[in-house]
Automatic annotation (TrEMBL):
It holds the Pfam family NAD_binding_2. Keywords: Oxidoreductase. Belongs to the HIBADH-related family. Residues 4-155 form the 6-phosphogluconate dehydrogenase NADP-binding domain. This is 3-hydroxyisobutyrate dehydrogenase. The active site is at 169. The keyword Cell membrane does not apply. GO terms for molecular function: NADP binding; oxidoreductase activity. InterPro entries: 6-PGluconate_DH-like_C_sf, 6PGD_dom2, 6PGDH_NADP-bd, HIBADH-related, HIBADH-related_NP60_sf, NAD(P)-bd_dom_sf. Gene3D superfamilies: N-(1-d-carboxylethyl)-l-norvaline Dehydrogenase, domain 2 (1.10.1040.10), NAD(P)-binding Rossmann-like Domain (3.40.50.720).
Length: 275
């Protein structure tokens, strides 16, 4: 039986740990705020007080954390993963932190620990249905092992060598958030022009904004605008582009909070101003 440690009990971390418990894996969880692990313990998971203790004895360790600072603290901080991970364990980095953070991580793990970066496409409901896409970067053998051991979560798309999964996630999120913002401003223009929303969305559904339209009405997704703004900033740290920078500023201006990114559209429409 696979023993998996899941570190980070945000929305996605909790969902991943629960799904793995349901699949029959032995699951150990850790979170900086202990109360978030209670429902998982009831579902069969074990909890440990430090990242080092959670990682100890696990065949596979998953990190799913908010940002690079949290990742650094969990890996190299006091009682961090680096102090407890088994020498031949597989570490799967699922946070959205970008390829530079993956490179940093690779240089701080014991040399025998295998690393795969595998941020995910999909939200909490996709986890429960086993419908995630794991964007994996790494050597073929450990990526294949991730696909086998984490099959309950969804499918693995091998993007290339280490760091490419993290890079692909930035590209995917940039595309989604840029088109959502473009959709919002397009609908705001239609509002000012007095056009029927039904007629406008029917037209747009056959064009390049079709995916953004579907995402704007999704009811089961859960991607906070706060984290979306962080992800856009990660892309800007790689290459400073004016459209992406404008999207980042838009997200901040409408309130980078815990609301799902679908709320980008009505918030921008409500804030429209005319010359």
């Amino acid at each position: 039986m696979t023993h998996i440690a899941v570190l980070g009990m945000g929305r996605m971390g909790r969902a991943v740990a629960r799904r793995l418990c349901e699949s029959g894996a032995t699951v150990t969880v850790w979170n900086r705020t202990p109360g978030r692990t209670d429902t998982l313990v009831a579902a069969g998971a074990r909890t440990r007080p430090t990242p080092a203790e959670a990682a100890s004895g696990a065949d596979l360790v998953i990190t799913m954390l908010a940002d690079r600072a949290a990742l650094a603290s969990v890996i190299t901080g006091p009682d961090g993963v680096r102090d407890g991970i088994d020498p031949h364990a597989l570490l799967v980095e699922m946070s959205t932190v970008g390829p530079a953070a993956v490179e940093w991580l690779a240089g701080r793990l014991p040399a025998t620990v295998r690393l795969v970066d595998a941020p995910v496409m999909g939200s909490v409901h996709a986890v429960a249905a086993g419908g995630l896409t794991l964007l994996a970067g790494g050597e073929p053998a450990p990526v294949a092992e991730v696909a086998e051991r984490l099959a309950a979560l969804g499918r693995v798309r091998h993007c290339g060598p280490s760091g490419t999964g993290a890079a692909m996630k930035l590209v995917a999120n940039n595309a989604m958030l840029t088109t959502l913002t473009a959709l919002a401003e397009t609908l705001a223009l239609a509002d000012v022009l007095g056009l029927s929303e039904e007629a406008v969305t029917d037209l747009l559904a056959d064009g390049p904004l079709a995916g953004a339209l579907r995402r704007s009405v999704a009811t089961e997704a859960d991607f906070p605008i706060r984290l979306a703004a962080k992800d856009v900033a990660l892309g800007l740290a790689v290459v400073n582009q004016p459209v992406t920078a404008a999207v980042r500023d838009r997200l901040v201006s409408i309130g980078a909070d815990e609301a799902d990114v679908a709320r980008i559209v009505p918030r921008i429409r409500a804030a429209v101003t005319t010359p």
